[in-house]
Amino acid sequence: MQAKLKAIIGLGNPETKYNSTRHNTGFIVVDKLLQVKNIRLSEKFKAFFGKDGNTLFLLPTTYMNLSGESVIELVNFYKLRPEDLLVIYDDISLELGTLRFRKDGSDGGHNGIKSIIKCLSSNNFHRLKVGIGPKNPNMDLAAFVLQKFSKEELEKMNKTADIAKDAALDWLTLDMEHLQSKYNKKFF
Question: What is the pTM (predicted TM-score) of this model?
C-alpha cells in the first residue's frame, strides 16, 4: 500500500517587500524546509509548489487573505483530507520564540486561517503557530504584522524557524500528543 500524501503549507504574502515581515513567518519556516531538502519549486495551485516523496510543500501566492483558494486546489488535485495538512503561520497571541501545535480549532482572528476554513468547509487541519508577539499596543494590527522584524527579532525568528522546521518534519511521523509535548513552549 502506498504511503499517504501529506502537505506542509506556509502562509505569507508573495511580494519581496513582505520578506522578513511578521506575517510571512509561515514562508520563512517552509523556506528553511525547502533548503534542507533541496526542493525546487514550480508555480501550481496558485502557489509555489514542491514535492519530496509523499510530502507536498505549498506557499500560496494568493496573498494571506485568500490562502484557502490555493489550499483547496491542492486538496482537490491530490484528494487530501483536511487532517493531511499542516499549516504553518504567524500568531500574534504568542510571544516571539514560541511554538504551538494545534490539531484543529477556530481561525483565532487570522485571515489566512479563516480563508482556509471557509474553502475547506472544515477546521480539522493541523496547525503550527509561530509566535510573533507581543503586539505594540500603540500600533494598528495590520501595520504590526506587515512590519519587518528588527535585527534582534529576526535573529530570534530565524532560530525559532529552525526549530519549527524540525517540528514540521516530525509532524510527518509523530502523533499530535508527542508533537505538542515536545514543541508547545517558548524556546527563546
Answer: 0.96
